[in-house]
Amino acid sequence: MFRIGHRLARSIHRKFADEGSVDVSESDGVRYLHLGNDTIQSAMRLSAPNSLELRYTRGVMMFLLFAPKAASMLGVGLGGASVARFVHHHLPQIHQRVVEINPQVIRIARSHFALPDDDERLQVIEGDGAEYIRQHPETTDVLFLDAYSSDGLPDELSTQMFFDSCAEALTAEGVLIANLWGSDRRFDLYLSRIEQSFDGRVLVLATGRPGNILVFGFKREPDDLRWASLRERAKALEAEHQIEFLDFVEALRDRNPCSNHRLFLGVNEKAEP
Predict the structure, then answer these.
(1) I need a labelling partner for 104 at 20 to 30 A (CA). Which of 89, 228, 230, 273 fits?
(2) pLDDT in tens, 16-25
């Protein structure tokens, strides 16, 4: 994407100088975050800062369909704090930790993207996400990976060992959500690694063409994957949060094994006729 509107702020920290700047632009009432190039990393509508402007961030909320009792969430990669703001404002039952390695991203998120101060339900941690995950096994119900840089997904956040540690970081009924880029030449490799870490218990949700693709990994299979049940739960969530949950449920048909009656997990599952 191209940079939209005029630049509001630029921040370069010496440690991250080789990776480019952290830029903020604004157009038609929407503020955008860019990391070292013109690609939009995050967006916030100024008149509705606690809503989710980008479709892929709304797709992240599909974890509510599969893990309605989730009480803790760990994020790796803060960006413009879209998901962190939404969860903090709309899901008070969830306690969040967000790990971000770049201190300037944290500063810009607070100064330009309405990131709330830390409190009893939100903790923003400056640090290495891969290391943090390794050091905190079985500590979160939801793990959200959104750590693309200007050069793509960092190597340390895409190895088999890393995805294995993501599975270990989840509680018994935990869910991983990995934001990947559909046109990334290594997408299939990342997906296969996630499938291995989660024994095939994986769903893929495309949120744009080619755009962002969300990969969900499950510690155990959700209880009820019948289409009728999924639509019923999605309809209730859509009314509550004004997010297109029903559209996302239908989009699951595109990339996952299923029958006319239900959705299946696992690359080796055979769909019923």
Answers:
(1) 89
(2) 334 458 999 9
Considering only CA atoms, which of 153, 144, 131, 162 is closest in space to residue 78?
A: 144
Per-residue tokens: 163 = 């995805």
Angstrom distance (rounded) from CA 236 to CA 269: 29
Q: Find, among 142, 150, 208, the residue nearest to 178 by Cα.
A: 142
Q: Residue 219: CB partners within 8 Å, gap ≥ 6? A: 167, 170, 171, 172, 173, 174, 175, 198, 201
How many other C-beta atoms can be found within 10 angstroms of the C-beta atom of residue 57?
25
**Which amino acid, one-letter code, is at 242?**
Q
pLDDT in tens, 29-71: 999 999 888 889 999 999 999 999 999 999 999 999 999 999 9
Q: Which residues pair with 204 in a beta bridge?
A: 215
For residue 11, the tally of other CB atoms under 10 A from its CB is: 17
Residues of the chain with confidence (pLDDT) below 50: 1-6, 10-19, 268-273
- Nearest Cα neighbor of 188 from 220, 151, 213 is 213
> How would you list the strands of the sheet with 170-181, edge to edge?
122-126, 95-100, 72-76, 140-145, 170-181, 212-218, 202-206
Which residue(s) pair with 125 in the sheet? 99
Spatial contact of 215 and 191, defined as CB atoms under 8 Å apart: yes
Distance CA 106, CA 216 (A): 26
Q: The whole model's pTM is what?
A: 0.91
Residues 201 and 269: their CA atoms lie apart, in Å, by 10
Task: Give the residue numbers marked as catalytic.
Answer: 146
């440690």: which residue's tokens? 15
216 DSSP β-pair partners: 177, 203
